[in-house]
Amino acid sequence: RDRDVTGVQTCALPICVRYGVAHRFAPAELVRPGSGLADGTRRGPACPQSPSRLDMVNGPLVDELTFDEDCLVLSVAAPADADGLPVMVWYHGGAYSTGSGEAVKYDTDALAREGQVVVVNVSYRLGVFGYLTPDGCDQDNLGLRDQILALRWIRDNIAAFGGDPGRVTLFGQSAGGDAVLSIMLSPESDGLFQRAIIQSAPLGVRNGRSAMTTAQQRVVTETLGPAPGAATVEQMLAAQAAAVRAAAPFGLVSSLPFAPIPGRSPLPASSDVPARIAQLAPRIELLIGYARNDAAPFVITRPVAVALGRFGLVGKAVLRVITAAATRKIFGSGVRKLAKAWTAHGGRVATYRFDWTPVGGPFGACHCIDLPCLFGTTADWADAPMLGPSRAIDADLAIRVRRCWTTFAHDGIA
To answer: Cα separation of 262 and 208, whole Å?
Structure first.
């Protein structure tokens, strides 16, 4: 339903709060009451990381941020007069190895103001810091645990920002969308949210990862040596790069080298996922979809484009076919399967496909193309190559997308 946004008060400054504390390779704990540092004038740190392969799509996301392992922060944006509003919790993408909820491009002022919602951007540990502990460390899925811990902080504290802890919607894109599903599957998240939005999650590479993960852990263990807790950040990132190389022989799943590991706390084993979905579907409303050319940035690498460019129109046609097939395999088929399972168990689900293509955009309606419509300003996305030469965002479409997402947070599926 349309929502009248005329006369809505502007948002208060986003407030950055520390929600958890953790030592390396250990689960985080909630900060003690009153000890979370808040600063409305500075963005929080990002987890240490290497450059993102999607900078060629989005432009740089975290260049303006500091890097620190002590990165368990969240930022809250709310209308100035917020009182009992729905809460939307954002989990950023980046293949579980790059990005941050603190990125300027994920500014949520328009989303909160137009939709009359409280928006929380969550940052968490990435790569070898959060998703691939060495052998001998008895804790796994630390980044996922961080994400659930943030939801506990929100349950306990969001009312002070004008949010309703009984009306929480999770939303995430790419690895962030995959993370939303993992959070849902974990019994530790029960009661912490009521709705979920999954955007362009690579659900087609969630399964069949165990052999790859074992090989990666072996390499990380060897690279870090007998005292991994004492390794420098540079050594940790070198081990992460070695883990990416170790994943390469394992085919399609290697396109997402890091991810939550099924069967290790707090996730159920893969064989138990259907039963868990049967439990979740009747009580969690779901909005899920993908972009028409989601796989394009991963297919249209420079070497591939140059090689196929020699064949003129035939080469372009081949590229379109490969992109469509990869999009179906990695993104589209998972949307259809999950939606079908949800409805089969009595759940309410809505699906979408994002088709908007910028004029002259080199990748079409590609991975991440929905993000400028949800977040930031035109200026924030002015260096995003996916938007084409004009770097223009369809303003009317952006308003419609934000309205759709926030209406779902308010009212669910009509």
So the answer is: 10
Phi, psi of 37, rounded to the nearest 5 degrees: -80, 130
Where in 92-145 does DSSP place strands (E)? 118-122
ω before 266 within 30° of 0 (cis)? yes
Question: In which band, very low, low, confident or very high, does the pLDDT at 41 lie, cut at 50, 70 and 90?
Answer: low
pLDDT at 37 over 70: no
Q: Which residues pair with 75 in a beta bridge?
A: 16, 121
- State what percent of residues in the chain have pLDDT above 90: 85
In angstroms, the CA 286 to CA 412 distance is 8
Task: Give which of 97, 132, 145 is closest to 265, Cα–Cα.
Answer: 145
Report the alpha-carbon distance of residue 132 to residue 249 in Å, rounded.
18
Strand 349-354 and strand 73-77: the pairing is unpaired
| Contact criterion met (CB below 8 Å) for 80 and 11 | yes
Distance CA 294, CA 397 (A): 18
Q: Is the pTM of this model over 0.90?
A: yes
Residue 353 backbone phi and psi in degrees, to 5? -130, 130
Strand pairing category for 118-122 and 73-77: antiparallel
Residue 33 DSSP SS3: coil
- Structure confidence by residue, pLDDT tens digits, 335-371: 999 999 999 999 999 999 999 999 999 999 999 999 9
Sign of CA dihedral 404, 406, 407, 413: positive
Among residues 366, 409, 412, 411, the alpha carbon closest in space to that of 386 is found at: 366
Contact call for residues 205 and 199 (beta carbons, < 8 A): no
Region 24-38: what's the mean pLDDT? 79
Q: How far apart are CA 367 and CA 53, in angstroms?
A: 12
> 83-117, pLDDT tens digit by residue?
999 999 999 999 999 999 999 999 999 999 999 99
What are 64's two structure tokens? 């303006």
